[in-house]
Amino acid sequence: MLAMFLAMLESEEDQRRFTKLYEAYEKKVYAVALRILGDPVRAEDAAQQTWFQLLKRWDRVSALPWEETEGYAVTTSKNCALDMLRAERRTMAFPEDWDPPAPEDRQDEYDYLVSLIRALPEGYRRILELKCVEEQTNKEIARRLNINESTVASRVMRGRAMLRSQLKKEGYAYDAV
Amino acid sequence: MTRFESSLRRGLMDANLAQYERVLQDADAAQPDFSPSYLRERMRLLADPWGWMRRREAAGPRRRRRLDWRVIAIAAALLLLSACAVAVVTGQFSQWFPTIWMDPKAPEVSEEIVSRMGTVIGEPQTVDGASVTLNAAVWDGQELRLSLTADIPDLPEDFSSEAPFYDLECRLRLAEHQREAYLRKEIALSHANSHIDLTEEELEELVQSHLEYPDDPDFHSVVRAARQEDGTLILQVMAALFDYVEDPELTLHIENLATYKVEEGDDGIFTSSRAPDGTVTTDHEINGPFLKGPFDFTFTLDNKLSPISYAGDIDATYENIPLRVSKITVMAFQVCANVDLLALLDPTGEDPDKLHISLEQNLAMSLNGLWTKDGEYVECIGGTAFSVEQDGKTDGEMRGNPVHVIDPAQVTAVCIGGKRVELSELTRLDE
To answer: How large is the ipTM?
Structure first.
């Protein structure tokens, strides 16, 4: 009885935190899904799937510092919307070529990394997001994207290598670049 | 995690924020014309997020969230603090650990059990006039308790030992040479328990990434006051420490200890958390520290009362709920059983073709007692947590906290859902 009671207490506290997150980002999660899907009805579905995913990963989400929660929610929303596009077979083949931008004047290494990520072919960027942000295993990503596990592993490795290599080429000194 | 990996993770999120910057800027001011069905779902979601999640999950073959029993067990120990006013005092350990439930009929037996799992430390330290002594540790192989006596000459007049403690500045760390072995076992077991396959490479990657954080492994340690006499406090630290390494060497670091500010209308839940980068978030205001450190106590746990595990295949069907027990583990502070549910579970109660288990049934069918060699029946308090796997298989774990400390070697049978299960009919795993 005691343990069950405590489990409920834990849920109450979690519920309060979840409500705070929901109220802060509900419109943003929906807006990102709407931008990708272009259809309010599907965007609502994607938004609800996003909240479902955030609840499923609540142990991880609740441990995030608040300033990271927006990026996490937006990334999850984007990936849920892309999952729906894929399920509807409306997704377009992402370009694979890589045309990294040159750094701007006095651009620091982190800002340059962000600009490189934005220019990264979507096929790599999405897998890196699922791996590094949503912390999914290669097997989970493979199942989600309907590709081979070995493809996931190679894209994770190659995506990281592409970023590191470009940073190194432009003289940025991330560790072990 | 290297600096590059850490920046990559943050950069991937920030790249999305930058990509959708305009959309996000406009979103707050927008008034989306949500459909009635969306608004209905939102109402359900906000009213009961996890119930909503489970109902949605029930529609597809996805994994259900598993309860973190380690946290629950510590929380249970915390609640016991408030119920220990009549703790029986018979010896040194009883005085050091007033939070441990002793058997009122045989307190000397309980004292002897606790002393066998105890390590006497007796190390005093003084900082700015405040003297703290780490008295002793007791360990049942899964749960560690530490006792400290703090003499604080300038304890604030409005200090209340019953106020909730802000204890994030108090940390328990494992010796560097034992961290890797502990983390490897912890990660491998947690994935195995969740039926997630890990390759050697993935395990190695996870271990190395956890090693980057000096606070890993996290023992979920908490500090509370067990007793106060003027400026002297008996403090208790509770932590989820598993016997993954021999003779663990630990350091208890107390930077500061403070209490939360309690205001009228507070719901009694006070939480703070520290992100991997050290950022602390808290949901209540914190008073100034009543104990200022730093104090660092390094000690080795010489004794524990090892858990005893039994394996078997026991029918534990309760009413219409078909259950099989595959493993029972007996510890000094708790007993647990691994169970398989031989039916498809419907957490929502909305699917007539699947089995629904009410809260009352959950409590009644659980591990609610044990018998010892002298024939005594000891009541246990607990419940069952189930986890639905992708293939529809449902396994679960029952936990029960005996109402007084027990010697695992003296336990002969457990009571599951009112049915007596003889441990002699199972295979003891350490023999």
So the answer is: 0.90
